[in-house]
Queue: 4 jobs
Job 1
Amino acid sequence: MIEVLLYYIVILITSVILDLVLGEPRGIFIRMHPVVVTGNIAFKLFRPDGKFFGIFLWFISVIPIMIIYYLVPRILMIINVVVGIVVYAYFLKLTFSIRLMRDYAKRILKGIESGDLYNARMLTQEIVRRNVWDLDTAHLISAVIESLAESFVDGFLSPLFYFALFGLPGALLQRLSNTMDSMVGYRGWPYEDVGWFSARVDTVLNYIPARLSSIIISMASGLMGLNWKESILVAFHEHCNVGSVNSGWPMASFAGALGVMLEKVGAYKINDDAPGPDVNKLRLAIKLFDVSVIIALVITLALLILRAFLISLFI
């Protein structure tokens, strides 16, 4: 059992190093990304054909890919343990991202600081759905901070939480479910009936990680000397402002910790008694993201150890 635990710890650390060093796959490798494969299947098979078809679409787009990307490194481990672990770690890395979102945030920050608002807006438009071209600087920065907060859960904490509980299949299940929600989980025709199952699965899987994120962000706030109490209070009282079961928790936690108002014009406001964010707050938000990631990794390691201990009790 100790040997298996050490394998998982090595895999986790290796996957984080691969993400920080390599970033996202490029060229031909992007075509083999499980998120891309699942997205392509969903796109090609999609038709507005009711809720039962939506269930079928989710299963046919997620489960085969999850099985394939789990079995490949397991088979390689039988042939060569080192190669199998490296491939396993790389596939785990494909379920989360630290570098991608923080690189976006840093490049946007650099653009705003240098006065290149056109480039800052262009980069921001790549990570948000709202029209950024008419936003003032405060609302532009707000969009970036909101994306950082959401990405902390969807793109990092949640897949690692399920990795700690169920290994690579858990991380793949969460990531691919999130992909299906992004593909078809929208309100209104033609998506609503087909996408309802994908949206529900994503909501259920992110329910615990979203709330855990508020605890982690408040801990990170305390370590940074930010307002950890306000982080908790704003999260508790205003997480429902965004109209989402889950995404409001990390966003409200960031807003409280940073002492800023986050606003999507015409949709929601969080912590509206505070001023809008500026470049200094964006810089702090990136640091808050980094510290939160470190704490999340420690918690993931603790969950791996707890899982190994509980399994040993029944073997």
Note: The radius of gyration is 20 Å.
Job 2
Amino acid sequence: MLRFLVSPRWIGLAIFVVLMAVTCYVLGGWQYDRWEQRKADNAIVEANVAGDPAPVEDVLADGWDPDLEYRTVTATGTFDSSREITVRFAHRDGAPGVQVITPLRLTDGQVVLIDRGWIAGPRDGTAPDDVPAAGQGRVTITGWLQRASTADQAATTPRDGQVRAVNGERWTDFLGAEPLPGYVALTSPEQEGLTGPPQPDLGTGPHLFYAIQWWFFSGLAVVGYFLFVRAELRERRPKASAEVTPG
């Protein structure tokens, strides 16, 4: 009755179903792993934001670590407004504007880049004329560590006081010193005329939904195969009965 399963057509169908089921299962596992990783990353961010502030020079003493993103740090020094940079095309809630990055020279002589906040600007990405000035004299700020951009050199090298993305490794000539890795998104004190950083995105994205969807497709392929087999058997039974004649 099941001899038809070893015909070339059915063998081909079986191979296709197995490949499809395995592929969908693997893709589901990949999406599930991404969901788990996102949850783990969010837990680190939440802990970093809630942690006690620590001096930025101490936190970055051993260099950058991905787990340091959103670590709450403090920095004490003097703003170097003469080397202030604005980040072009920094849209916020659909509105055009720029991010204002001002180097802070720490009391020990090191330099850290401070994102003082966002301000609305022209759609062509240029900085507005009314960018609020940084504080004078010695200041102490608190903020969240942010990772440097991985954009190419053209986007991260200062030109005419602007960049497309922040990467202090490419600002050494402009600053006259190599800054600490990453930068600090200032959260306190509030900068008059500038909007502070948005809260970190702690969403997990659609990865779990995609995982379930891929696993559903995997199961559907297997179930579909057996439904085809059952349909074929039903079609063959009447033919077999018809071949049997009374003696």
Note: The beta strands are 54-55, 72-79, 85-87, 97-106, 111-120, 138-146, 162-163, 183-188.
Job 3
Amino acid sequence: MALQSFGALRMGANQMQSRVIVEGLQVGTVVAPIPQFVLDKTNAGFVDAQLKNIFWISASLILIAILFSIWLGSHLVRSIAELRRVTWEIASDKLQARADVGNQNELGDLAQHVNSMAQALELNEQHRGKMLADVSHELRTPLTVMRGEIEALLDGIRVLDRAAAVSLHAEVLQLNKLVDDLRQLTLADAGNLVFHFSPLNLTALIAEVSERFRLRMHKAQLQFELRMPAEAVMIDADASRIT
């Protein structure tokens, strides 16, 4: 079989060749040049301008991202520093401290929760202080009554009889209740003291309490007159605390 060639077989570096095989025999060679793209001055300038634009746009975006990150970081740090200041003041018993609530975001919600906690602690402390002052004031009453009765016994104004002993015993019981209130105050928040309500004869209680103060009023040259209904007035109350 004779081989024929169509066209001049030009060999070069920038071309590709492929043999044509028929029934195991090479019958020809396909030669195709590889196209070379050469940019002219216009296309080269356009590509160079586009590359410069992409560079400056990328640099601008990176700079904007850095500035925004710095602003966001300083904002977060400032909010966290404010919360840290408030929590430190609360830990130092400065319960009136409040955090400055800025934006309504997660840190703003956290600042509101911290303020609510500080307000609740401040109210509890006020209630506790008021309860402690009330109990301390009430402690003076049975002590003063006991002192007056004991002085009356020592001066011979009053006879040491069963009535005097019962009166002193009642004052001691009342004093014991008040001391127990102080103990409960250290174990619970103000306003959470335990009350034991039961039916109580209010007229009998008033008569008993007024009898304890009768001697003090007499020494102070005060006229004391107790007017109560003949029938019993029943209420539901804690006898020791209402006393």
Note: Residues 1-5 have pLDDT under 50 and may be disordered.
Job 4
Amino acid sequence: MSQANPSHASHAFERLDDLAEPLLVEDGARGDLTTEALGLHGRRGHVVFFARGPMTIAGTELAAAMFMRRGIPVVLHRRSGESVKAGAQLLAGDGDAADLHLVFKAAQTMVETLSGMATAARAMVDAVEAVNPNVRVACTRKAFPGGRRLSHVAVTAGGAILHRAGLSETILIFAEHRAFLRDKPLAAVMERLRLVAPEKKIAIEVDDVAEAREAIDAGFDILQLERFSVGAVGEVAALARARAIPPLIAAAGGVTVANAADYVRAGAGMIVTSAPFGAPPADVNVSIAEVKLN
């Protein structure tokens, strides 16, 4: 069974440190009225992030960048892609009490949200790879608008791959495209795509076994089976295996942690999902204590 690469995930989050300032400004563009009213500026504090439960971590590097933007040095104890047990210390830092309060809640919420996605992705990856370690879980571009960069890095921290990061990355025909191609058989569509994009693999989403058979006959490289039953996936997989060069069968829509393994057993060579993007946040505890100065 493959494991997420914490080093790769960590570097990916470090490349997102340009988001640190916008995340801080969103919550504290006009300062923190409470800490200002209490006169906490100039007092020294120590902050620690802990995992309340088992989780796969995502976003601690970006959280550290947020603290450092406000002059708070941070020690990273856990990096994105690592799976931890309850009580694990994730990061710690010392700084001015007012600055700590400007940063910690936004950083906590970000780590919780992204770690929830990473944990959900890890669970599905583990379920799939327990059946076949060569089958990938691919997360779609259906992340919350404006949050795709963070969401995509979060699910890759959980061991998933990206289905397609954007519209220009791959060719994938949906029913919405075919609405304008009713007069063309799939073989003619495929012939055009091979001519226009000869270096690309061509994928098509199909809605039933009959469409899948037509797409196989037309020579599509990847068939994305939308909301097929496990049995129907098995039927299409058998049709694909009969070809000298079988297309990749991707099960999409309605795939969950509970049934992902069944789709792989039926013959799916890839699982396509957006489910981790809607995962509940992980639970990260934050402790802040005053540091007495001599």
Note: Residues 94 and 181 are 62 Å apart (CA to CA).
